[in-house]
Protein 1
Amino acid sequence: MSAETVQAIIDDLGALLLFTMILIVAASQISRAIYAVAAQSFLIAIAGAVLATATGNVDLWVIAGVTLVVKATLLPWVLHWVVRRMNVRREVEPVIPVAATLALAVAVVVMSFHLSASLGTVRQAITGNALPVGIALTLSGVLVMATRKTALTQMVGLFASENGIFFTAMAVTQGMPLIIEIGVILDVILAALVMTIMVLRVRSTVDADIADLDRLKG
Amino acid sequence: MTGERPIELVLLEMALLVLLGPLVTGFIQKLKARLQCRQGAAIVQPYRDLAKLFRKGTVQAVTASGFFRSIPVLVLAATVAAGALVPVLRAGPPAFPLGDALMLLGLLALARFLTAIGAFDAGGAFGGMGASREMTIAPLVEPVLMMVVFSTAVAAGTTELGALSAHRGTSWILDWHAADFLGFAAMLVLLPAETGRIPVDNPDTHLELTMLHEGMLLEHSGPGLGCMVLASHTRQIVTLGLVAALFFPIVSYGAGAADLLVGAGAFAAKILVLAVFLALVESSYAKLRLFRVPQYLGIGFVCALTALALRIL
């Protein structure tokens, strides 16, 4: 594949990633947000495979495979399991209205494109629009975490944010050392496990969600 | 590049759109019925309904003014005029100044405004309610449609639909720019709203809690209602044609009779794809509460804005 083709494909994948991010921000049901984040991870895996064929970097194949198995299949499955286990209400509980969150997400996307446009020389070395898309994904994930009350939606936000970091790293460096990527993936798995256990324990002992834990009792 | 479209061709295309509009509605209804394991009415049922309506007499509310009678004709005229701007048989700008995609959206907005004003004029409670709902949704849909048009127009350097379609060329999804994906996604989100379908509106019901567009037609009867129904069929196929012109590839460049036939077949195929999409969405989603609709349309808004940002920044 020529460099232009790869760049075009990464650009298009970036657009689809942004679309899944918008779906996550706008989702009114937890299960839809989980499906969207699974689709996002799937797209990241495709991006990894494309870069692997382009650069001939074997590590990227491994990373794409691990992403596909862990982040696109395993983690969404765990999240769905927790949703079923907790019998949570299906609707996400936003702190501010979802429409306002969407407006903020627009601001985030435009800002990341604007900021990375000023990094002209750096950006030329980078695969297409990967840098602004990655920054936008990361920040929107943080936005989702900040504007949702339930722990599960915050987890979805964390995964989306992590996807953004992953995409940026993958496209900017054209393949980080395998050991680092594996470390990041393990990090995510551990975070998911810890948070799942936390959520379930909190729910079973005090019957409250994370948003209710805002006061310290002595 | 393609040549220009002479006036005969434009008129022929307009007539085709008006004639085929009910067929698209019939097809969607038939497909929906089959998806729900029903037999469903024949595909030509909308034509029969129209023929029946045009044979009937007219009854008018005593509170309606004289203007009320002319509303259906004006609505139909505005919608059909919008149909003239959609390239059907082949791409390329018309050979004479006609108007562009903004004109098309403006004419559709005019038709919508006239429908609403007619509903208020008749003085019925349902009409006023339907009109106020429609006018709540419309300002969320129309600017976003314009942004989608702009995100494509920035690349092509024109807002004329035929030229936009020619600029899209024959290549399919592989040649799409990143902004095209987001623009198309926005368009798919908006399509049910613009054609008055689930999850925004429900075309099959006259339940007062759910109807938007149908509520505005309640006071019309006979040929007037026929005109309004024909206008909404035409509006649907015009909107689908707009999507096809903006995002789908063109097949034939030539001007010969054979090329036009191929173009007609290609147009039918594109409309068919979009109609199947609409039927699938209608069958798999529930109608949203009215207060949820802005949130749903917000997805389209953000997608369109991001598409523009990708195109410009």
Protein 2
Amino acid sequence: MTATKIRTYHKWFALLTALQLLIWMATGAYMVWMDIEFIRGKPLVNKVNGAVFHVKAPAYSFTDFIKDHPNATALSLYAHQDTLFYSAKIAGKLQRFSSVTGELLPQLNQQQALDAAEQVYTGKAKIIRATLHQQTAPNEISPHALPMWQVELDDAMHSTLYLSAVTGQLLSARHDYWRLFDIMWMLHIMDYETRENVHNPFLTIMSSLALLTTLFGIALTYISFRNPKSCEEQA
Amino acid sequence: MSCSNKLNTGIEILGKRHRNLAMQTLHKWLALIVGLQLLIWIVTGLAFNLIDEQFLDANPYRVDDKAQSFNSPLASTANLLQQYQTEGIIELKLTSVLSRAVYALTTTKQTRWFWADSLEPLSLSDAEIQAIAKGSYSGSGVISSAQILTNKTPFDASGSVAMFTTSDPLDTRIYIDTASGAVLAHQNSQSDLKDLLFMLHFMDYTPDNGIGFNHLLVQSISIGALFLGLSGIYILGHKCHQGQLSLPFIRRKTAIGKLALYTQDAQLLAEFTDLNGTYLESINRGRERLRTQCGGGGRCGLCKLRFVEQPPIPNDYDLDKLTATELAQGIRLSCQHEAHPSKLELVTKAQHRDWQKSEY
């Protein structure tokens, strides 16, 4: 293949793929430059706040719990706002129980959710609102942890905390940089609907064309850097 | 136009010309630096796109933990909670190892495991660790004896990590945390391929503590790649501006007329009627008659030809590569101008020699 053809092919394939290549490069640069722990909201919260307990054994013991709920799984004793609770999955559903009586406890009410959010949140912004999600979760969080409280904060990056409405424990934190990261990810994998399917035909087509663009580009780089003809030869 | 205005316009044109050429030089050097990694990104990205998840799956033989029912009585947690209260207790979980109940006590410092029936610290024999590995595995392979890993591992383990190999076709490996008895992971030749793809895509060539993408190497190359893309788009825009990006099927057909090419001695060399693209493309269609180094990028100057009549207005590349005398003689870079019916002459003897060689 002649250098002229290689340059021509590089030019035309680049014209087809230029925009997506630039999107891949820009989104990739954003994702590698942003600290993933910051994106995950780690600086916003301290999960240990309010979780440490200094009490003796609960009146209602693990043995009592197992006796009452023999099919319980993921049984855990934890503290929430200075009170001990049990959490366990009963028939696959997460529930909260009193560590004193063993009775099943209701979901957190709004005030309890607000208190829980304030306890784990390390920033100074005020809470704007708390919304309970029972059946469907906002797009930015997995629905597996439903039901949950969404607590929105009045800060510059629109931070939002998600807390389990069953246990009050922090599920996740979101903010505008996370949301932008999610958009970047969507553009990077070219799945504009679910944002998680990397096996989509758009990506196949554009990656294949980009591969050709790059291969011709690399050939052209070699051509550009090979030794130029001598002056005698050109004369 | 006043003298100062003319000067300003001249400086502006010169500055723009230099910018265009600088962009091409930048693109060329960035391609040299990041081109190979760009290729790796695209190939690995395409691999993730095309390879079915099941062919990268680490867990085809992994058995999920079963829900346990505990028959033996559990010891009171009072002493346990009392003993570690100063560390700040966060959670006490009831779990199981080999069907025996275990308390997992997490403090602000660490997690410890105790047999829930005796409150003795969890301590597992080699046979028990192997039994845990076996219990997590549904494949037909024979499980080896434990190998304790001494190097760093990517797993979040509290104690040393025991690795078991198997003789199945996927070369499954099982990793157990000897402190907790937890099955850390299954790995196999499929997941090794997945890890390799991630390692190449993220440029993390020391993935002992897990593959990450927040490191200086990939960050630096990503910026280089971004500027490679930006300079490429600038060049495309410039080519479009210079009329070098009109699509072939909507391009003006100039079959009416011929392009006649002469030697330096005014002897007719060839005539071309298929005038698509630039002069260079039209002349070299099917065979490289006019040799170039850069393939028509306006950078080597080897494709220069003399227009016998009505030379086109010189563009940035002509002005950069040709002398004032050459420009005055009607010499232009044939790669930079759209082909029209015209009369052209070769400029060097080398061109004539290459032409003759290309005929054989």
